[in-house]
Amino acid sequence: MHISEGVLSTQILIAGWAGTCAGVALGLKKTKDYKIVRTALLSSAFFLASLVNIRIGPSSTHLSFIAPMGLILGWGAFPAIFVALLLQAVLFQFGGFIVLGANTLAMASPALFVYLIFGKIIRNSQKKFNVMIFSFIAGFLAVILAASIVGVFLGLTDKNFLTAIKLLFIAHVPLALVEGLATAFLISWLKKAAPEFLF
Amino acid sequence: MKKSFLIIFLFVLNFENPGFAHGVGFREISLKAVPLEFFYSTGDKMSYCEAKIFSPKDSKFAAQTSRTDERGRVAFIPDVSGDWRVIVNDGQGHQCEAKINITEEFLKNENKIMNIKKNSPELFIRALLGVSLIFNLALLIRIKKNSSLLTPNP
Q: Where would I find the beta strands (DSSP E) of chain B?
């Protein structure tokens, strides 16, 4: 889901950096001491997830863990995703430095969105079935939202990207389903085994 | 008079547009190429990706612009010795750069070929380095947030 260097217009790049700087600053401010180690843990998971490919039909993709990052870290998802993407650009040559702001915004905003919408519901939910359903929706929505934001960025840059955007969106639906399932199992397990992780 | 002008005009036209007189053709040549294969960390091939090949003479403008084939392969024929760079980009955020040192021996068609320089360490080490950096950064932030960790308790 990384956007390559040299694709987006200057306005989108600036908007991406502005949103990311604000998100990272707020994330660092709102991240409490006891959440720092888990932020690092999930940032590492996000960083490494790009190396684990999943074959879906003729193509392959990789998990992103956007929704679990949002549900566990809240605002802390912004700095966690920023650092992971920065290191992916440095060490694996995924994405790039100039486009880092836009890439962070595209992936961290959905994490924050699912936290704000589903975080409280999942925390207060007592039934395992409800936790699984809401977590699945959160995981599914996070990927769809991230793909949509990437699509909007590309669409605002150049209308010729419309076909690519449609393909990008279609390609991410299977990943959204896989992420939804992974989020549902992970969050319901955390809710049972280590509920303090969701607070 | 008019005829002579017409002849001069046609003569000039012929010089100005050499394309009129040129045909195209091909012949088989036996030069040694450098074939490379590009792949993702998962083993999947980087198929049909844009490949830019930079000669040691010019690092800004590509000497050759091409695409990898279905198996992620691309080849070029070097004409000068030095470090050649091949950059393959899939347009989806993944880019791989190979630096190939072409020796004089290679150009003379001898067996000593070239050294492929590895710019960066293996994937596993890079992944480990990344995780280590993340945890070190977390520790730094924690220390900065809780400065009491730096000062001994009275």
A: 34-37, 50-54, 64-67, 73-76, 82-89, 95-102, 114-117
